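Action item from last week, closing it out:
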Amino acid sequence: MSRLGDLIRTERVRQKMTPKQVAKKCGVSESYLLAVEAGTRIIADDQARRILKTIGLREQTEADFSLDDIAATVDLAQVQPQMAKQMAKPKVRPAEAEVVASTDEKDPAVTGSVWLDALTSVLKRVPVMNAVMKPVSYRLLPIENGMIEGAKPDKVFYFLAPDASMRGFRIHAGDVALTVPAQSPIDGAVMLVEYDGHRALRKVKVMERFQVLLQSFDREYDAKTLQLSEVNFLGRCVRVEFDL
């Protein structure tokens, strides 16, 4: 079964709709719909969106990423056990349900489906932080065994490189570095540090006598030796990403 077909079937069943009901509303045959759900029939994007809308899913979710993005990246086999737990919960009164009814009955919009809630166990919106640690955007990352790169998901963030001071280490202005918690210096690692009143990415070398060497490389190599007490280590950079 394809991920898109799995998604359509899962949400259709959750909405308690039969294949015949969905097929009739979408103007397709029941056999065609079942083939799509089984992953044996290729479906056009506009047709997929029409079916998803019919069963109660809109194109954009409250997390600001498209259903196509989710269908391409999420293994719904991991999501379904969580959905089963959610579906087993007592039903709430309509006034308590997290459902926003559209003013147009032909265009329903759901902002809090069981399917979407279950995604929080497999995906995380990770903030991209600027130099003053304010989020400027977000990126989706998969959660594996409850962790991202060995760290708790809510402790992970991207740091937006504000300048070219690290381009000699292949980090350019505008690149984003995935950062995990680390409060002590790690020899040879690129770390997000705070010193002399500003935050920056620096390559770290641990020295003797409780000192640390913070290395940068713009047009030429530069390094600054500081006492450990003068540096605040905010995290270790595990990878760098950039947009083409």
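Closing note: Residues 39 and 63 are 27 Å apart (CA to CA).
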